[in-house]
């Protein structure tokens, strides 16, 4: 569809005045096109969408090749938006500069509840910025997905703080570079949380030490609100895998598996 087609969709939405959910996934909005003799891309679509009292509560821009420049506009437009509750920017090309803009937006927006940023190019520096200056300063987010965004142990320390200080209910950080030290930092934050229900760390090299630290907090009853802890493919030994599987309780399900044949 591209940006030109998306602008036509936005025009129809404005005319209907009854659309609250919009999925523009996989439409190449990050590519510049000509619309009416002027350049159009994701930023153009977003400005137009939210220009006149938008009713959109859920927006997906997944897999559109969106980069830092478009992200800046998206962040600026949404900083003071009071209607949008769910935003999906996963599988794009947002880097460090985009992470800075998103952190600014998250520190100002008080109505966003769900944000999916999976599979972007933040790396550890961008992810750290996003956590420390964005998520940590946002008290309304309930679900955050930062899977495959380059988080490392330093980011995990910040994640531990977010878990202990914020009211997030679901956190997904699968397929990053969080090791044993990072897992231990996260484990330390769990007892202070009264809201976190789901924590997914699949595909991180936390190994036995990290897995046992997290499982230990759950089995001790200190992670009072947690209902699901997923540690699949975290480079754990068969012994740790067995121990984790046997630690399931009525209050929290632990998924720990290396998929061995």
Automatic annotation (TrEMBL):
Residues 240-252 have a biased composition (Polar residues). SMART domains: LRR_RI (SM00368). Residues 239-261 are annotated as: Disordered. It comes from the Eukaryota. Pfam families: LRR_6 (PF13516). Gene3D superfamilies: Ribonuclease Inhibitor. PANTHER family: F-BOX DOMAIN-CONTAINING PROTEIN-RELATED, LEUCINE RICH REPEAT FAMILY PROTEIN. This is Leucine-rich repeat protein. It comes from Strigomonas culicis.
């Amino acid at each position: 569809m591209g940006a030109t087609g998306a602008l036509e969709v936005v025009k129809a939405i404005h005319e209907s005045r009854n659309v609250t959910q919009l999925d523009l996934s996989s439409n190449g909005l990050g590519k510049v096109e000509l619309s009416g003799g002027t350049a159009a891309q994701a930023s153009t679509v977003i400005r137009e969408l939210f220009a006149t009292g938008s009713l959109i509560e859920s927006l997906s821009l997944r897999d559109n090749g969106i980069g830092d420049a478009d992200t800046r506009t998206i962040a600026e437009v949404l900083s003071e938006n009071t209607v949008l509750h769910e935003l999906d920017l996963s599988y794009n090309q947002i880097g460090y500069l985009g992470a800075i803009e998103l952190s600014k937006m998250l520190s100002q927006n008080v109505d966003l509840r769900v944000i999916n940023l999976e599979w972007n190019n933040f790396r550890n520096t961008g992810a750290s910025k996003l956590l420390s200056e964005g998520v940590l300063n946002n008290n309304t987010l309930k679900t955050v997905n930062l899977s495959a965004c380059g988080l490392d142990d330093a980011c995990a320390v910040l994640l531990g703080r977010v878990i202990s200080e914020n009211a997030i209910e679901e956190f997904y950080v699968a397929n990053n570079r969080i090791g044993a030290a990072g897992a231990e930092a996260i484990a330390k934050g769990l007892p202070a949380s009264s809201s976190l229900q789901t924590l997914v760390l699949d595909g991180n090299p936390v190994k036995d030490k990290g897995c046992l630290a997290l499982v230990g907090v759950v089995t001790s009853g200190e992670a009072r609100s947690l209902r699901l802890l997923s540690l699949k493919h975290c480079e754990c030994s068969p012994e740790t895998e067995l121990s984790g599987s046997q630690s399931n309780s009525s209050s929290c399900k632990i998924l720990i598996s290396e998929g061995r044949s």
